[in-house]
């Protein structure tokens, strides 16, 4: 009997020890899960510029245009930027006209090909193989369809702003148009297009390189802008009468 009670007591103690071990393992695993979930929650709270949720490469479409803008292929990106620079120099600094430039390029190309085709027997070289160029209809239709969709969306946004439903968006658009009109007085359309092209080929790649620093600065700037907007709303916008004034006039 004494041996039976002693063995029963030992088994009870062993069961308690095993229960404590299982409880400790479960608590440690739950702590590990909570710790592993913390980075995800922290990442979800990180501010991203313009509220984006995708990488910069995906924002630009993730294809060849994104590779060019983000300098994945440095030769193509440098060639595009260099070509745009040459065009800007020819039209803006040298003051070439578009029709004159096109005619001179065609004259030079046709003269070289004509002379090469007729002089190949004298210089013992094969004549140039001039490819047949046929423009496909599908790419033009795709571009026209995409352009139509963007124009319709622009008209819808302008209609929504003109309807007076969103005063904040109205003020932002008016301020943007004022800035654009001021910039238009400083330079012509070609220079403005070239500046936009250069910025499009430099700012995204710089942002991708210094993404965390830029997002942190943008978050602080956005907080300050929201504070100033709240002050402006309390002092100015809240005092503007809203709705029909028929009751007041009556």
TrEMBL record:
The record's principal subcellular location, in a coarse class, is endoplasmic reticulum
Which sequence ranges are marked TM in the entry? Answer: 97-116, 170-197
Per UniProt, subcellular location reads as: Endoplasmic reticulum membrane
Q: Keywords of this protein's UniProt record, alphabetized?
A: Endoplasmic reticulum, Membrane, Transmembrane, Transmembrane helix
Q: Which GO terms describe its cellular component?
A: endoplasmic reticulum membrane
Q: Does the keyword Ligase apply?
A: no
Q: Which example biological process does GO assign this protein?
A: response to bacterium
> What membrane topology was assigned to this protein in its record?
Multi-pass membrane protein
Output the superkingdom of the source species: Eukaryota
Q: Please name one Pfam family that this protein belongs to.
A: Reticulon
What are the residue boundaries of the Reticulon domain, all occurrences included?
65-250
Tell me the PROSITE patterns matching this sequence. RETICULON
| Protein known as | Reticulon-like protein
Q: What is the lineage of its organism?
A: Eukaryota, Viridiplantae, Streptophyta, Embryophyta, Tracheophyta
């Amino acid at each position: 009997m004494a041996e039976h009670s002693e063995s029963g007591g030992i088994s009870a103690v062993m069961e308690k020890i095993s229960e404590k071990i299982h409880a400790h393992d479960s608590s440690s695993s739950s702590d590990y899960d909570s710790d592993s979930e913390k980075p995800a929650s922290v990442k979800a709270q990180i501010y991203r510029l313009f509220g984006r949720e995708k990488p910069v490469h995906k924002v630009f479409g993730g294809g060849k245009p994104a590779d060019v803008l983000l300098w994945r292929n440095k030769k193509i990106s440098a060639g595009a930027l260099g070509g745009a620079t040459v065009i800007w120099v020819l039209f803006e600094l040298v003051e070439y006209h578009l029709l004159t430039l096109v005619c001179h390029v065609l004259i030079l190309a046709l003269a070289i090909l004509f002379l090469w085709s007729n002089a190949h027997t004298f210089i013992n070289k094969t004549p140039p193989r001039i490819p047949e160029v046929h423009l496909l209809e599908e790419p033009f239709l795709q571009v026209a369809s995409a352009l139509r969709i963007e124009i319709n969306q622009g008209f819808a946004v302008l209609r929504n702003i003109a309807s007076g439903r969103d005063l904040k968006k109205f003020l932002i658009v008016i301020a943007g148009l004022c800035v654009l009109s001021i910039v238009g007085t400083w330079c012509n359309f070609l220079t403005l297009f070239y500046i936009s092209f250069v910025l499009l080929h430099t700012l995204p790649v710089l942002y991708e390189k210094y993404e965390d620093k830029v997002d942190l600065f943008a978050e602080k700037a956005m907080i300050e802008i929201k504070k100033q907007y709240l002050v402006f709303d309390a002092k100015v916008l809240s005092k503007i009468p809203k709705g029909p004034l028929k009751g007041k006039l009556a």
